[in-house]
Amino acid sequence: MAFSLAPSATTLGFRLEAFDTIGSTNAVALQRAQAGDAGRLWIVSKKQEAGRGRRGRPWQTPEGNLAATLLLVARFDPKVAATLGFVAGLALADALNAVVPDVKLSVGVDGGGDRAGRNRFELKWPNDVLAHGAKLSGILLESVVLADGRFAVAVGIGVNVVGYPEDVPYPATSLRALGSDCDAETLFLALSDAWVDNSARWADGRGLDEIRRRWLAQAAGLGSEVAVKLDGKVVRGIFETIDGDCRFVIRDGQGAEFRIAAGDVHFGAVASARAD
Question: What does the alpha-carbon distance between residue 141 and residue 262 come to, in Å, rounded to a whole number?
């Protein structure tokens, strides 16, 4: 089966470039932007050899997993464009729920135990999708300002379809390990459709309040104990919400509120064990 776009995406002018093997879908997308591509371009592959995660961490995609990047080019406000990661998380969760109907999930070790069973797939701030409390997908936004002043954003989405890394300091899983026979092509078809719906809700940032509410309804660890590691320090408290700018809001034991724009989050007992 070949990669293809959903009819809803094709109708709106989205395009597709598919590769058997690629270095980095994000890197190719940004190259296309700098060469003059107008955006609304999906770059996809089932094998990625030089992908990157947050903070430059390597993210390899073995044969059969999904590496997908959507290139968007517009006169974005960079602050608003940064919230596209939440659109991507919602789109992927919608796609997973559509094509993985028979897998029953609960939230485990790093997913915030108080919310176990509420959602089959949970969204972990700022950019992961969890299943059974284990990382199933990572999302990475990269951007570049073009010569004409427009802003190009590469929305990278990597999903563990058939395999997952075992030499990582957090739980991970794959669709196959969860008992699903969904393949990368089927998942991407659903993702390209779900992106259309969720980006319409986002509406170039005008619908961010709705995106925020929908994201919180699927948030891992909401209301539970968390630890956030940032700049070498650990902040501990209760995960209360994400604010209007999608910052992570926690309150510590003394009642102090922290609004965090970037950091590594751990939940519950894992917070104590890992964050330090």
Answer: 13
Dihedral (C-alpha) 11, 129, 51, 31: value to the nearest 10 degrees? 30
Q: What is the pTM of this model?
A: 0.90
Q: What are phi and psi of 156, to 5 degrees?
A: -90, 135
Domains of the chain, earliest start first: 7-216 (3.30.930.10), 225-274 (2.30.30)
> Could you give the C-alpha distances from 68 to 1, 28, 267, in angstroms and in order?
16, 11, 28
Please list the pLDDT of the chain residue by residue as tens digits (276 residues).
Answer: 899 999 999 999 999 999 999 999 999 999 999 999 999 999 999 999 875 655 555 555 679 999 999 999 999 888 999 999 999 999 999 999 999 976 655 445 454 544 444 568 999 999 999 998 899 999 999 999 999 989 999 999 999 999 998 877 678 999 999 999 999 999 999 999 999 999 999 999 999 999 999 999 999 999 999 999 877 789 999 999 999 999 999 999 999 999 999 888 988 644 554 455
